[in-house]
Amino acid sequence: MGSFTAAIAALVVGAGVASATVVGVVQAQRSAGEKPNEQVEQSVLDYGTNARQ
Amino acid sequence: MNRGARAATSLWPWLLAAVVLGPALLGRGYVLTYDMVWVPDLALRPDLLGTGTALPRAVPSDAVVALLDELVPGMLLQRLVLYGALVAAALGTRRLVGRSLPAQWVAMTAAIWNPFVAERLVIGHWPVLLGYAALPWLALAAGRARRTGVVPAALPLLLVAGSLSASAGLVSALVVLVFGLRRGGGRATARLLACVVAANLPWLVAGLTHASAAVADPDGARLFGTQPEGSLPAPLAALTLGGIWNAEVVPGSRSTWLAWTSLVVLVVLAVLGRRAFLATTPDAPRWLVVGGLGLAVALVGWASPATVGWLGEQVPGLGLLRDSTRMLALLVPVEAALLAAGAAVVVGRARDAQWVVAPALVVVPVLLLPDLAWGGFGALRPVSYPASYAVVRDAVEERASTGPGGDLLVLPFTAYRAPEWNGLRSVLDPLGRHLTPDHVASDVLLVGGTEVAGEDPRGPRVLDALALPAAPERAAALASLGVRFVATDDSVRLGEEENDLLRPDVPGDPVVSSGELRVVELARPTPSSTPVATAVALGAAWTVWLGWPLGALLLTLRRRHRARGGTGG
C-alpha cells in the first residue's frame, strides 16, 4: 500500500473511531442524566439490577 | 528494539493501570463498591477460615487479607492488589504475542482496558481479577511443565495467588490442566494435579463441610446469568467481554454504538491476525480451547438459566456457575492476543505509515471504552469510614476479649447497604468486617427487588427470631443461636415494614453508642462450636495450602544450590 494512501486510510479510520468515541461518551452522559433520581425509590438494600427488570 | 522503546514498552502497563484506577490510587480511604469491602485491619477470625455456617465465598481471600494487613496497612494493600493485578495481567499477556512491538503494546492495552476488567472492578470482584491476571503466567508455567516434565517453582505460588476464590480457583485450575497435562505425563502430571488441588483446598474442604447447604436458589441463575448491554444481545456482549448480570456496573459506553464498533474491530483484527496468532502465541490452540470454554459457560448461563439453576439446586457447589460471565476471564487473553496479532498484520502492511497506524491501534481499546478511565469516571473513588466505626470496633474488641464466646449480628439484617458516606454506592455491609467477632450475615440477595434465597441455614432462624413480637423474646432467641453482640446501624434508611422486619429493637447490655451505631451484649449466648472433624479437615487443608508452595520453593532452591555445587559454581 502506498505510504500516502495508508496514511490517509489510517487518518480516516482513526477519525471514525474517535468520532464514535465522542458520540458514545455524549450519548452515555445524556442517558445517565435522563435517568430519574432513583435514590429515593430504589431500595438501598439491592445488590444490583438486571438490564431488563 | 532500542533502549527507549524497551523502557516505554515496560512502562506502558504501569501508566495505563494508573489511568484506569485513578482516584482509587490517589485518594485517601478505601474503595467500597458492591462486593469489595476493605477495612483498616481485618481480624483473622475462625469464620474466615471456613468454620462459619455460611458458604465459604470469601475463602481463602479474606484470611489472606487478614494476614497481610498485619504487615501492610489495609488502605495500601487494597491499592497494591488492584494495581498489581492490572499490571500483571498486561505483562503476562505481553508474553503471548511474540516480538512485534505494536503487538505487545496492543496486547497490554487490551489486557487492561476491556469490559471484563471494567465490570469486575466496579462490582468489586478483586479475587476474580487476580485470578485473571495469573492466567497467562499459569499457562506459560504449565506449558513449560508439560514440555520439560519439571513443574516450575513459581507455579504453586501463582496458583495460590490465582485461586483466592472458588470461581478464580476453577478458572486457574482449568488453565493449568489444559496447558500442563500430556498423555503419559507420569510424575509431572501427578505433581501438577497436586498443585491444583493444594491451591484450592481451603474453599474445597470448607465447601464440602457445607455440602448440605450448598444448593443454590434456581432463580439466581436467571438473575445472575449473562445479560445484554444496550442494544448488544447477550451472546455478543459476552463475545466482547461484557454481559455482566448487574446493569449498574456496566460502563455507559457499552449501551452506545461503541459496543458494536468494538465487535467489528474485534472480528476484523481477529480474522486478519488469525495466522499470526497461531504462529506466535505459545500453545495457541490450547488458548482457543480455554477461551471457547469460557465463552460457552457464559452462553449457557444466558441460553438456559433453567439448566444452570437446576444444576445449582441439585449439585452442591454448582451454584458457582450462575454468575457465568466470570468465566470470560478465560477469553480475555485470547482476544487480546488476537487483537495484537491483527494489529501487527495491519502495521506490517502500512509500511511507511506505521508511525501513524501503530499508535492509533494501541489506543483503539481505550477509545472504545472511554469511561473506564479515571476509576470508571469516578466509580472507584475512595472514602473514609465514619469515626464511629473505629470507636465501636475498639469497644467491642475490648468487651469480646473476656466473657463467653459468641457471634456478632448486624442490623438491619441484610447483605447490602448504600451508605450516604459512601456516596450512596451499594456495598456489602462493612460493619461486620470492621468489627472483630465472627459475624452472622444475611446472604439473601436482592436483585432489582427480587429476592434470591441464601444458603446459610442460620439466616432464616435469625429472621424468625427477629420476627418474635416481644423484644426480650427476640434477645433470648438470638442468644440461643449463638449471638452475643447485636450492632444496629441506624443510618440505613428503611421503610416502616422493612424496619420492623430487619431492624427491630433487641435489648441487651449497652456496649457502645457512637454516631448512628450502637451495640448491645446479649445475656447468656449459646456459642456455636465447630465439629471436631470439620476443624481437623480445615486445619489440614490450610496447612497443605500454605505448606505446598513453600515446600516446592524450598525444594527448587535446594536443587539449584546442589546443581551449582555440582558444577563447581
From TrEMBL, chain B:
Domain of life: Bacteria
Entry keyword set: Membrane, Transmembrane, Transmembrane helix
Residues that span the membrane, as ranges: 12-31, 80-97, 117-135, 155-180, 192-216, 257-275, 287-308, 328-348, 355-377, 532-555
Electron transport as UniProt keyword: no
Transmembrane listed as a keyword: yes
Protein name per Swiss-Prot or TrEMBL: Uncharacterized protein
